[in-house]
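Q: Got a minute? One more chain.
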Amino acid sequence: MSDQYPPPPPTGPGTPPPPGGSAPQYGTPAPAENPYGAPPPAPAYGYAPQTGPVTRPKSMDTAVLLMRVGAALSIVTLLLSFLFAGDIREQVVKTLEDSGQTVDQALVDTTVTVGIAFAVVLGLLGAGLWLFMAWANGKGKSWARIVATILFGLSLLSFLAGLTQASPTLSRVLSVVQIALGGYIVYLLWRKESSEFYAASNAPRY
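A: Always. Here it is, folded:
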């Protein structure tokens, strides 16, 4: 019994193309327009995602080092409060005499002790803040730069207010050095390369 349907046309390299058609193509197909392994498209928000550690610029290295120097100066100032205990006592006595009050040695001793204790607390607090700011800014924390700038402003105001009060020469010199140090550190923190470091440190990471 014969087949009711004609056999399919032959296919192969030697087969002529069908009428009105094109010859079948053989070989490796053309690659896709965006094959796997192609680089991802550029980010849409104007920055490139970070995939590795951010290099800290020299300005930030210097700022972190100077913050540690500031912590050391705070400890030195703390120790000077014990060295100048006699000068503190004389200042307390002079203040009492100028105000017309009776000089009570017990009151003088208490005032000197409280003054030294206050200086020790401020010295330790100052050293701790210097070290904390060195760590946070060294990591590129944007808020740390703002906090460091505010702390410098407060220190400057305190220094200017203290110019009207008598203090040992060495203590006054250390205060000037700390203010100059703080001002230079703030300048380093706001340099262009430092700002780029903060921006890169806080960019999304993948």
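A: The two ends are 71 Å apart (CA to CA).
Q: Perfect, thanks.
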